[in-house]
Amino acid sequence: MTGIEVLSPGPLTTVQDLGRPGLAPIGVGPSGAADRASLRLANRLVGNHEDTAALELTYGGLRIRFDAAATIALTGAPCPGVAMNGPVHIGAGQELVVGIPSEGLRTYLAVRGGFDVPEVLGSRSTDVLSGIGPAVLETGMRLPIGTRTNGFPNVDLAPPLGLGPAILRVLPGPRDDWFVSDALATLVGSAYVVTKDSNRVGVRLDGPELKREVHEELPSEGMVSGALQVPPGGRPILFLADHPVTGGYPVIAVVADKDLDRAGQLRGGDTVRFCL
Q: Does residue 160 sit within a domain?
């Protein structure tokens, strides 16, 4: 079976598809691509089903070698040195080197046929919090390429999805009444900065404090992607794909599902705003 050899994995490269939703009752988070729209686009460009396993590159830096000729596509955060948002034909033995993205954080690499790694609970996604799914890519690792495809699209170049300003729509959360009366107004009326200790579990934000009215301990309750959980320090954490299924801090608001892909591209130092 043909595949790729990892010559350098970059800061963090994982296998991702559209995840394993619906398993929270047994303690398993959704995982999957942090930017689902970019994953879907990459797969469409090479004639795969939208949920086919691809690679999610965090801050670029990937270098791989192909055993045989292949067709690939890269989407998401734009990286120098490679063609983006269109099918690219790779020769047998050819190396692919992906640079550091000029904006955004996560780039998606789909190959026609998909990466044929074993499924775990119905998904090939790597969950970095629980350790479920394929291992994070390391130098010397080999990944097989599958054969499950759709018809090849008649597309040379797709318009980039675009990042644009990070303005995320929110709905009031289940515990917004645990905060002072103007806390939600503070959240949507202020700019927050993404800290460098953010990851696939959550985006940590620095900015105005969201003060609590209720200071009791909150029993652990279910969490969802997009939840803005507020620890005692008052600075929110935006949960992403690998978030825990339960949490013990109050959730002041929840980011709209349609805006989670943009949230998945936030990198340290970016400014983000919220709106109702």
A: no
The per-residue DSSP string of 196-239 comes to TT--SSEEEEESS---BS--SPPPPEE--TTEEE--TTS--EEE
Which range marks the domain in which residue 12 is found?
3-144
Question: Is 126 within a domain?
Answer: yes
Q: For position 240, which CATH number holds?
A: 2.40.100.10
What pLDDT, on a 0 to 100 scale, did the predictor assign at position 82?
Answer: 87
pLDDT tens profile 42-75: 999 999 999 999 999 999 999 999 999 999 999 9
Output DSSP code: residue 136. P
Q: Could you read off the pLDDT of 200-232 as tens digits, one per residue?
A: 999 999 999 999 999 998 999 999 999 999 999
Single pTM value for the model: 0.96
137 and 22 both lie in a single domain: yes
